[in-house]
Amino acid sequence: MQPFELFVGLRYTRAKRRNHFISFISLVSMLGIALGIAALITVMSVMNGFEREIRSRILGVAAHVQVLAIEGGLADWRKAAAEAKSNPQVLAAAPFVAAQGLLSSGSQVRGVIVRGVVPDLEDQVADIGSHMRGGRLADLQPGEFGIVLGTDLARALRVQLGERVTLIAPQGQVTPAGLMPRLKQFRVTGIFSVGHYEYDSGLALVRMEDAQALYRMGEAASGVRLKLANLYEAPRVARELAKSISADAYITDWTQQNANYFRAIQIEKRMMFIILTLIIAVAAFNLVSTLVMVVTDKLPDIAILRTLGASPAAIMKIFMVQGTLIGVIGTALGVFLGVVLSLNIDVVVPAIERAFDFQILSREVYYISELPSQLDWRDVWTVAGVALALAFLATLYPSWRAARVNPAEALRYE
User: Fold this and answer.
1) How many Å apart are CA 297 and CA 278, to the nearest integer?
2) 299 vs 317, which has greater pLDDT?
């Protein structure tokens, strides 16, 4: 058997109102809550997707942990790699040479980050080999001076596989004619695309031995790149390696190297949650005006219920049920729309782009050109809980006002 207050509150919600404007305001409040919740869930999912995509694309090229030479080069990099691999979290280690240079082809010149790698070892710590658009990373052979370019870099230089580019090292050599830059021609043996504009437009890979010869590093490497079993353990592993590695080196991990990216995403996610929660709050507090008008419209009914023995608390509960039910329906509808939109963002966004003939995310401006989405059910329940709480709070004042109605005053002019 239903409680008296719940029965009357549900009946008031279902009943056709004499004042159609009140019904319209109730519908607007419900839809406002639903749209606010749907927008918030979608935005939170997109922010989660951005964080996941940026992390995966950065870590597809960058290392989980790096052992870097403090000055000059890491002469005994093999020993440092062996000491690092003694840690149970370290799955693989690869030496590298890091340098800067200018690449030129014809009249085109671009500044690049040059990374000298050993292809077999590099494939164990990074995913570049699986993102090759042409050629193979294994085509980098010592002494052949091959080079692998990002797609945007190759496009900017207007070169294709098999063509030659000139790499200019900033460290010059002294000649009778003065300080001259070191130049070396490289043949393009591969082109990669990792989907991250910074790397696709500014990274060039060469064989480590060729980089050592060009930059006069001898047998030394700039450092050793490590891959971990659990990337979230990187800070702890870095601290452990700092104690166990005997080489004159310092240890960095991906959370330090790319801290600004992920910190910015977290701040944006937090601010978007606050801003869109305010939209839900505005819609929820429309319930205040709705219920105030309902109370005014139901004054005779309230007076009759009071004369039949209903207590002020019972009257208050009746209108709290009515307002809360509007909030629950709006929340349920918003959660449904938000979840559906978040799970189908990869279909909705391209359809909008085709319909209006524009691109939401340009590759030249953003790190990611597709709008990603990752639905987190914890975010969904948090948003739904906040919306229900706001809707419940919005019912308190009108319900309290209904409980204070004087039956005699309400029926005086009836």
Assistant:
1) 29
2) 317
